[in-house]
Amino acid sequence: MDLEKLTALQLAEKIKQHQISVLDGVKHVFEQIEKKEPKIHAYLDTYKKEAYARAKQVQKGIEDGTYTGPLAGVPIAIKDNICIKGKTTTCASKILENFVPQYNAEVIDRLERAGLVIIGKTNMDEFAMGSTTETSAYGVTRNPWDTEHVPGGSSGGSCAAVAAGETYLALGSDTGGSIRQPSSFCGVTGIKPTYGTVSRYGLVAYASSLDQIGPVGKDVADCAALLEIIAGHDTKDSTSIERQDLNFTKDMEGKLMGMKFGVPKEYLAEGLNPEVKAAFMDALKILSQQGAIVEFFSMKTTEYMIPAYYIIASAEASSNLERFDGVKYGYRAKEYEGLHDMYKKTRTEGFGEEVKRRIMLGSFVLSSGYYDAYYLKALKTKALIKQEFDRAFEKYDVLLAPAAPYTAPKLGESLKDPLAMYLGDIYTVAVNLCGLPGITVPCGMDSAGLPVGIQMIGDCFMEKKILRAAKEYETCRGTFPTAEEGGRKA
Amino acid sequence: MAKIIDDETMENVCILAKLSLSEEEKEKAKADMQKMLDYVEKLDELDTENVEPLSHIFGDTNVFREDVVTNGDDKEAMLANAPKAKEWQYQVPKTIG
Fold first, then answer.
1. Looking at domain A3-256+438-486, which CATH architecture does it have?
2. Do A415 and A131 form a contact (C-beta atoms < 8 A)?
3. In chain A, which residues have their Cβ closer than 8 Å to the Cβ of B53?
4. What φ, ψ does residue A270 adopt, rounded to 5°?
5. Domain locations in chain A?
6. In Å, how far is A237's CA from the nearest CA of chain B?
């Protein structure tokens, strides 16, 4: 049986029908890891021994009726900013090189109750700050479609692992596009849920008002099934929301006839690579052919999204990352004179350049005398952006955008100019500012053979609408090649 | 006109951020921050005079719970990651002279 061709749901179905054992699936994934990791480096850590033991336990659980869910027995990889009890959780930072959580993130408990098999931790930009996975303190991850290119970020390890067939599913986190952009660069599917839908308990915070954990998978149905497992109210996260409509896999089938899609005109202006635009326009055509109404409209706050986002995200980061002081966990500098010198040396030696840059910017915009001019101004801008999205959703069911203005850049090109890198987040950050759900689905390729993704954005709590649109689009688009089939240097 | 980041501002930022940068790093950080502030100055184009700042998307209602202890004695777990611990306490350099 061609194990690599199966989706996660298909694998779980075959396990249920006794055509494959849980261990077969897990073994297959580790074979792929051994074969591909030397080139890709999607993982920071893998748990082969434990995963084999867990596979046998899950097999038994499936047989005795303990695990009845649609993804029982499926291997999954976890982004390294999500805590697993007893497993080093580094956030790809030196400052957490030896941090071993004493508890599970809520999502990990949920995965375990659903019978999934955790196989390892994936690489990321340090503390999820970056768009390429190059700010990791533990080396870059390479794009499985072309190993000269980045996988995107910050969930680059999770997306590359799925794209390379080194796992069936992965969890990522999305603060400003960190699931949707690497999903686009790696030709996989990823969802950023409505803020508050998935518990952030045990997710190492970057910008608390923007962070959400979400699924990465081979197709829309896999992601929806995984989202259904990880979503749900959690009293341990005070921003967690009590929602009744968490059955995301239900009513996913449906025609697009009459569904209204809006495309912000400003998103297609200057800066969008023509090949990405062409792939995006082709996707719009497919939607129109299915009877959907696709209209262009003006989103006037577009050019203010990135400034507002980077002020708010940096401010929250500077506050959240104060906890890394060398006292309670993580790295502590070896030589220092007194307490304050210990803090300073620990942080200076422990954090990478991009993280320091954002901590400094955040400290500045929150400081006395500048708070109103920068931080408060950004929060007011956020209000205006939210108002504009509210107006758009009065007219449209779903908004459409590319996930990024270009395909995956070459390794080593992006970090030279941080501001230029931030500008690449133009289509993703507003979704986080407004708490909206978004999904990226592969929609084409550029002339170099690198994947392009289309992003579908819904109003808050409207995951079902974007899932239905994404699922129907995916069906009409037809099979999308894997990195191995379509890539150049996989 | 955006704020000009001078040496004194940079010094203050480093104190707030608890970072100690070399002169060379400081110069680079200064340039980076200046570039970023020049860019975000764009927000000044927006009239936000009568706009309420939006911090929480779903309203600022507080989440309360009964003040009941639910966890047990996790002393060992809490100290498991301490860079330095002594007699069930985190150990830090001498802070009072």
1. Alpha-Beta Complex (3.90)
2. no
3. 376, 379-380, 382-383
4. -40, 140
5. 3-256+438-486
6. 10
